[in-house]
Amino acid sequence: MEDFLVEDNPLLLPVNKHKSAYDGFISVQGRDFRIRIVLPPDQQLKQAKFYCSWQFKHLLRGYEHVVKQRLQQSADLVTFILELKTVLELRLRSLPGGCSIQPPQYYSQLISEMETLGWDRLIFIDTDFRTLKLKAEDSSARQHVLTVKLASKHPAEAPECSSDLPTSLAITWTPQSTLVQLHSQFLQVLDSLTEFWDILDEIDNKTWILEPEKPSRADTMRRIAIGNNVSIKVELDPRHPKMLPDCCLLGPEHVVTPLRAKLNANMHLWNPDSSVLLNLRDVLEIEFPSSATHEKSSFNIECGICYSYHLEAAIPDQVCNDPCCGQPFHQACLYEWLRALPSSRQSFSIVFGECPYCSKPITVKMAATKS
């Protein structure tokens, strides 16, 4: 708790080894206010003593009872400091020249709901007290964030909610709804997607993922390395994650063709009671490379012309089919390369030429951006 307190308020530090007294500053709206808190031997806030600068006392005039009440009722020092900064923020906003504020009942309603929900679930709140970020944990201990944008007439109007999910976030709201109920609905959504994330976590942990490089919880696709220049792109259904996903094999035809034949021939063996990764191994009759058996550098995935992986949104998906080469290229890079060669020829939208690496025949369709 003390570590979080100091991290959130770096100018407020304990002044003894028992951490029973804190002295320093809290910052609100770019202004620093001096405070001192002295805890009793039992570390309970009810008997704590609170001191502050005269500027702070001036701002709190008429609100002293609120600070005293929060000092007696807050669960811990971190919660008290957060609530104290909230009160100070409201007072600063109510001063002449401050930002426009909502009616008092808006803030009292918000504070009441947060007290019921728990301040420890609040990650962020903006200076307008309209946008909140609440944390939640699913049954597999994964951390998630729910962003809530409150309406000006909260709770009469429904808030806007968003999160990093593979499906739309459907929330039921009535004028009697609260943030506690909203958070509970969010947890139910997380529970419905737990199996989907468990499957993707297994794939991420036991294979080499080429794409996306930094997957989010909303991503439903994984491009999994099979070998040098060979991979499979799978697209999972979040609602039915254990069913056969959409699969697309990428790589030289002499390698991809037999894999595609196995996929088609063994599709009927797919067992929804087994993991997706195990099913992919059985259907394709392969073992996927993993971090325990291969380095990621073992997979040649960079374009042989521009020497990069991403070209805007494109990846190297054009491959030389010669078994001794198999070099990948971006479609646009290969198209421009072949078009510049005097020996290449074009028939409709297809350009015929020689591989930049092995000089064997290679073709590419005209890039989609070209006319």
TrEMBL record:
CC per GO annotation: cytoplasm; Fanconi anaemia nuclear complex
Record flagged with keyword Ubl conjugation: yes
Primary subcellular site in the record, as a coarse category: cytoplasm
CDD domains documented for this protein: DRWD-C_FANCL (cd23832), DRWD-N_FANCL (cd23831), ELF_FANCL (cd23786), RING-CH-C4HC3_FANCL (cd16490)
Coiled-coil stretches noted in the UniProt entry, renumbered to this chain: none
Any one biological process term the GO annotation gives: protein monoubiquitination
A Pfam family annotated for this UniProt entry: FANCL_C
Molecular functions per Gene Ontology: ubiquitin protein ligase activity; zinc ion binding
InterPro entries found in the cross-reference section: Fancl, FANCL_C, FANCL_d2, FANCL_d3, FANCL_d3_sf, FancL_WD-rpt_cont_dom, UBQ-conjugating_enzyme/RWD, Znf_RING/FYVE/PHD
Domain Fanconi anemia complex subunit FancL WD-repeat containing: 5-89
Domain FANCL UBC-like, chain residue ranges per copy: 104-193, 195-290
Subcellular location field: Cytoplasm; Nucleus
Pathway recorded for this protein: Protein modification; protein ubiquitination
EC number: 2.3.2.27
Catalytic activities: S-ubiquitinyl-[E2 ubiquitin-conjugating enzyme]-L-cysteine + [acceptor protein]-L-lysine = [E2 ubiquitin-conjugating enzyme]-L-cysteine + N(6)-ubiquitinyl-[acceptor protein]-L-lysine
Superkingdom, natural source: Eukaryota
Keywords: Cytoplasm, DNA damage, DNA repair, Metal-binding, Nucleus, Transferase, Ubl conjugation, Ubl conjugation pathway, Zinc, Zinc-finger
Domain FANCL C-terminal: 300-367
Enzyme class: transferase
Protein name stated in the entry: E3 ubiquitin-protein ligase FANCL
Species annotation: Gouania willdenowi
Record lineage: Eukaryota, Metazoa, Chordata, Craniata, Vertebrata
Gene name, Swiss-Prot/TrEMBL: fancl
